[in-house]
Each structure stands twice: as C-alpha cells, then as structure tokens.
Amino acid sequence: MDMKIVLQTAVEKAAKAAMAAGKLPQGELPEILLEVPPQKEFGDFASNFAMQAARSLKTNPRSIAQAIVEELREDWLEKVEIAGPGFLNFYLNPRWVHELLAGILAQGDRYGSTKHGAGQRIQVEFVSANPTGPLHVGHGRGAAVGSALVNLLRAAGYDVASEYYINDAGNQIDNLALSVEARYLELLGQTVEFPADGYHGEDIVDTARRIVEHHGDRFLKLSVAERREQFKEIALQEKLAALKEDLAAFNVQFDHWFSERTLHEADAIQSACKALREKGYLYEQDGAQWLKSTAYGDDKDRVVIRDNGVPTYLAADIAYHRNKMERGFEQLINIWGADHHGYICRVKAAIASFGYRPEQLEVLILQMVSLFRDGELVKMSKRTGQSVTLTELMEEVGTDAARFFFIMRSIDSQLDFDLNLAKSRTNENPVYYIQYAHARICSIFRQAEEAGVDTTDLSAAELSLLSSQWEVDLIKKLGEYPEEISQAAAERAPHRIARYVHDLAGQFHTFYNQCRIVGVEAELQTARLALAKGVQSAIRHALAVLGVSAPDRM
RNA sequence: GCGCCUGUAGCUCAGUGGAUAGAGCACCGGCCUCCGAAGCCGGGUGCGCAAGUUCGAUUCUCGCCAGGCGCACCA
After folding, report:
1. Helix runs in A124-223, H state only
2. pLDDT tens for residues A366-394?
3. Interior CA angle at A166 toward A131 and A318, to 5°?
C-alpha cells in the first residue's frame, strides 16, 4: 500500500540485479531514502541513493543511477530520470494517486493513526505547577504542548499515560499556609507582617475571604500550629481544584495526579536513599547526604538529605522517578520550563544510579513565552498587576487560538505570542484559516444533501476522474499525513502537525477555488465529494491531536 | 566563568547533508450574477561572522559575536 515501501523494495531489487549482472561492483548498499521532491518537475518521489552509494561502491553516482534505471521494470513506474549530480526521480503511473485516495477513504476517521509506536509504554509528565496559585502563560505553553504530544503519541500507536506531579509537600506549601493565614488575620482586622516568601496573589486573599465567610473567626481560637495545618489543607484543596478546572477548560486531561506527599508517607524517599547508598551513589559529608551525580557528568554532587535531616526537593524527585520506572514505563518524557534545564543531569543521574538507562528519561525543555499586545511586550496583567494567567489568556483569545499559538512553534524557540493576531476573527489568523477549511467542507456536504445527493456512501466514486493538477496535488498532500504523524511523534514535535494541517487546509482552499464540487456532472461530483471527505477527516484528526475544535460552521 | 536554547525575508517563525531555502503577518495589484471572499491568484537580492569535514554545508564540528534561560543544603 505504502508507495514508498514498494519503491524502496524495487530499487533495492534493481541494485542487486545490477550487481548480479556485473553492471555494478559488489558492496554494501546504504539505506534507500525516498522523499517528495521540492518541485514536482522532479517527479512523484526522488532518492539520493546513487549519491549515497557512490563511496562504498567506488563508482560515480550517475553510473550507479544508470545501472539501477536499466534494471527497474515495474508497470506502475512510468519513467525514472537521472537528474543533477545523480538524483533518481521517479514518475509514477497516475493511477497510484487514485489508489492512494481509495486507501485513505477506506480508513475513514482513523486515517492518520499509525502503528509507529507499536504499543510502547510511555509516560508524559507535564505542567506539574506548584499548587500555590493560578497557572500563568508559561504553564499554558507546557499544558498545550504536553497535551498535544500525548494525543500525538497516541495517534502514532504508543501506549501513553499522562501525569501531573503535585508538589503538595515542602516549603512552598508551608508558605501557602502562612500567606493564607496572614490574609485571614488581616481580614479580621489584625495587623500582621506578611511572610517573606509569601504569595502576594489576589487569589490568596480570595481564599482567606472564603474561609472567613464559611468559618468566621473560629480559627483564631486554635493554636498557631493547628491553624496553619488546617489552612494548609483548605488552601491546597482549593488551589488544586482551581488548577484542574483551568486545565479542563484548556482541553487538558491527565490520567493520573501524583501526590508528592504519598512518597513521604510511604517512606519512598528513605527507601530510595537506602538503595542508592547500597549501590554506592550516596555518601555523607558535612552532615548531609549527597548524590554522586558527578559520576554521570553533573558539575557537582547534589545534596539529597540536608544536615538537619530534611530531604531536599531532589530527594523527592529521585523517589518519584524511581516510582515511575517501577510502574513499568519504558520511556519517560518530562516537559519542563527553560529555567529548569540545569536540573536534568541530576535526575538522569539518579535514574542511572538505579540501573536504568539515562535515555529512558527524556526531558523536553520549553523556551519562554512573551506576550505582545499592539506591538508592545506585556509584562503584567492590567487587572491584577501580577503575571498574566492562563485563564486571562483564554478569556482574551479563546481556547482554540491559545492552544494553536502555543503549539505551532518548535519548543526550542522562544515564543512571541501576538495577542492581536490570536484574537482576530479574520483572515489574518491561522487558526481560523484551518477551521474555515473544515467548516467549508461541512457546508459543501450540506449543500450537496440539499440538492438530493446521497453523501453517506461515496465508496463507489470513480476516483480516476480526479485528474487535474489541483486534485492530484491535494491527494498527494493528504497522502503524506500518516507519515507526518509518525515522524512528529518520533521527534516529539507536535508543531509539525500544526504546520501540516495549515498546509493541507491551504491546498484544499486552492482546490476549492479551481474545481467546483456541487452541481457538476454526477460522477465527477461524487469523486470530488469523496476527496473533500478525505480532507475533512484528516483536518478533524489533526485538530483533535492539537486539541483544537473543528466546527461545522463558523 | 560554565551549561542549555536561539540567531533564516521588514516582523513572527518553519525547514533540509543535496537539485531554484518556504509559510503567516505587513505592503502593492487582480478575482464574487457561480458550492462560505474568515477564500483564491500574482508580486521576494534572506540562512549572525570566520574556519574545518564533505563530491556537496543554511544543516555536522570548532572558534568568535549577539539574545534568552540557568548555575542553592529553594522548588
């Protein structure tokens, strides 16, 4: 079915036949790579195989190409040309695009899903923001990219579990409790000094206000320790609920919310330290326990248990990643902000210390996000004076645009987020361009049905009628989709899907403007409807991967 | 000082060891008695600098220059 594989096999066979016939010297053959050429004058597929083989066969590329061409005798191959320094350009019998489309249509809504990941168990952990305040736009990028990556890996056949690590233990949670307490006391008219590492967000005041509403001043009667303990729980539950709500609104779901506390409660940290000590990767110095991370290329060893006996954040993370591996994942992917990149080495060191391969943990680093409005950098929210929250962004530009803009760039690039562009409901906006193509196809089907055409079964369409350059080009573009999914998944690069579906939508718009669908001769109409159907399902599939809606009308 | 990311068109960014390096925005000019003009068609002297590897480098390596982010017994 896959034409590339058929071609690869044929070329390999021809090369071996040429060797057997003495037209080529014996030798190792490189992998036969096929690509869609940059221009269609160079054929349907092209290969640089002859150039790659030149060295091992000690023959000039054009001679190799010539020998292969002479041995290629396939009826589906219209012609093969040797071009430039030795490219093989393959021109296929036009029938192949119609067979390609028939295969696409037979897969229906599943078209685009592949078996590339072959059931490999993989975990993706992302966002994992501290439950001490609202998500900001940086978390938004992680949430959009992470959820799209999960969808993408699933589309490529991986067995994926998504996870959020809740930092519900440690200093930041104590500071949360102290902050809420301070606001609570203020609301009850006391003068208090706000904690040095406290959280200044308006949401903390809201939490305190709700506590006053529900419980009045009864916490004043408790001991300070007891009061803080209770505030800690109340605030934590509230922050967590808010996080879940914001993420759900942003079309982000997690299979598992993993609590850091459970590690402390189950003694997982002590047990992990013990295991490390036994393996010789943990030692004591200056009263503290150190991980020997320099053994795996870190700049310095890292403290795991402080001299006061309290574990560091790294200690919990070591236990957490050990736990992940023990759950049987073959591959872990963590998505972190650029400000955490220095942390990668020590966590990998910990994983390696437990006897796993460090490559089993992949850390994807997301570069920073800058918001721009009217060409000006937006530093703070006008409303709150704090960082702009994900919720504010969703309110301003909508979930679809926010997700698409976060995903459409490579994670390695800093992201300049143009609020005006994302917000515009006009032709400037790439999100609407794609959604418009989908809505347009839906509209075509509505028109066809009104005209009495049965559009439910197009399997009898005579696809060979699709012979114009616009139709052929569109089918070829459509045919590239599954490989795009596999490739994007392998590269952990959801932005490739954003780009692909934008290109596909453009190709469809061109086709639409050149080829009338509804109202032409019946057989041709059916064939064009079938093509539109295939494009529709691919756009839907791709937008679903991105977590962006595919509206039937706009 | 060390580490990670980036430097491609006026702006924001894709892209590739190969044949004429692309898209969106912006700008200019065309296209609706016809399936949605949120659309289509046309308009382009650009890979930070300098060396190396290679038949071939914008892509790989080294060195500079510039920007971002880090460099805690914080998380």
Report:
1. 137-155, 171-187, 202-215
2. 999 999 988 888 988 888 888 899 999 99
3. 135
Q: A303: which nucleotide lies closest, measuring CA to C1'? A: B73
Q: What are phi and psi of A82, to 5 degrees?
A: -100, 125
pTM for the predicted model, two decimal places? 0.95
Tell me what ipTM this predicted complex has: 0.95
Q: Which nucleotide is nearest to A82 (CA to C1')?
A: B19
Distance CA A387, CA A176 (A): 18
Distance from CA(A496) to C1'(B9), angstroms, rounded: 21
The CB density around residue A293, as the number of other CB atoms within 10 Å, is: 23
Residue with tokens 């013990």: A274
Coil, strand, or helix at residue A82?
Answer: strand
CA of A408 vs C1' of B34, distance in Å?
Answer: 35
Q: Rounded CA gap, A80 and A89, in Å?
A: 6
Q: List the single protein residue with the shortest CA to C1' distance from B56.
A: A85
Which nucleotide lies at the shortest CA–C1' distance from A493?
Answer: B14
With DSSP H G I counted as helix, E B as strand and the rest as coil, what are the percentages for chain A, rounded to 5? 55, 15, 30
* CA-derived radius of gyration, chain A: 29
